[in-house]
Amino acid sequence: MATQWGGHLKARQSLTRPGDATVYRLVGTGTAVDGDANLRLKNTTRFGYALELEAHYEAWLSGGDTRRRQQRLLRLNPVATARLPATGADLDARRLFDLTAVVSDRSDHILYHRLDRLSVAFRSSRGSLRLGRQDLTWGNGMIFNPLDLFNPFAPTDVVRDYKTGDDMAVVQAYLPDGGDLQVLYVPRRPTPGADPDWDASSVAAKLHRFAGDLEFDLMAARHYRDTVLGGGLLGEIGDAAWRLDAVWTVPGGDLDARSFLSFVVNLDYSWTWRGRNWYGLVEYHHNDLGTTDYGRALYEPRIRDRLRRGELFGLGRDYLALQLRWEVHPLVNLYLAPITNLDGPSGLVQPYLMWDVTGSLRATAGAVAHWGAAGTEYGGYRVAGTPFEAVPGDSAYLMLTWYF
């Protein structure tokens, strides 16, 4: 038997200025000072090659001006507050197992803890079976990832250490001539406290193979009530790598809803210039489900449900994302990551710096700035049926992470 421990302690301080015409004008739109802290403890125990147990515990403490304002809004206007982001304490509301407990929930802070991984894996030379709370990533998208149906990262996520775990069963079979086949089942509850339901669950399979210098994926899924078919390609052009993923979704349960296509294509390249390492990425994302009538988009069930489930992160149809990394020093990297909604246009820019202070301590500092004319996604638009506008707030942050 071999056991391994690890984890991290993370603290973040941020400043955010909401728009003057947003719902926050009811409770104040001055600069909000917020903070949060996250503790993660990891354990992996192996019994030879055949059996592995994995468990991750995490605790979150967050609070500040934004939470105070949201709590005041909840008392003033519960309907308007329904459009505000949910807290992390709601992560397990529809999962098979509720492994989250709230320790303290007050107007200025919330403290909760949970098990984000709790799984057992059985392995052999032919494949593996993993049961329990775990993470799984499909697809080749670097910023947007339509092929990743299960808790994908948001395009604006700078730190991608861990995906949120889900309760699932995953079977992986190794193919004799290379590649593998994965089949999974994710049971869910349609509403908090309800029994698991087939129409709220997912079953999916993905085949990964090699064809000469190319890698390709084929995927089929029943995701909630939708039928989803997808595929991906990965190859090289000289020293650059390119990737393409496409997903076709046939909505279920709504005879008036049309099928839609979503795809992403990207190219990235690393080079050396003036003795420093550089990295560049360009990615284009298209989504047929998108719209330019942003004010009414939240009333469209297909969009609203995917936003709630954390599968959709933009309301538009066409996006261009870039990333540039400059290694200022072997321990210091400077990034610039703009995302543009091409139908408008409007967008956001994320400059940030990562400094590995020591082998176990990392400092990250950055900002998010939005631009665009009135009526665009990132410039701000009036929410239909309300006197308020949806305007993303510019922000700046400092984060320290200690790994152990």
Q: Topology, pairings included?
A:
Elements: E1 2-17, E2 32-47, E3 51-64, H1 65-76, H2 78-81, E4 100-105, E5 109-124, E6 127-134, E7 166-174, E8 180-186, E9 202-211, E10 214-223, E11 226-237, E12 240-250, E13 260-273, E14 276-287, H3 294-297, H4 301-309, E15 318-329, E16 332-341, E17 346-356, E18 361-372, E19 381-382, E20 389-390, E21 394-403
Antiparallel strand pairs: 1-2, 1-21, 2-3, 3-5, 4-5, 5-6, 6-7, 7-8, 8-9, 9-10, 10-11, 11-12, 12-13, 13-14, 14-15, 15-16, 16-17, 17-18, 18-21, 19-20
Task: Please give a quick description of this structure.
The protein is mostly beta strands. It is built from 4 helices and 21 strands. The protein has a single domain (2-403), classed as Porin.
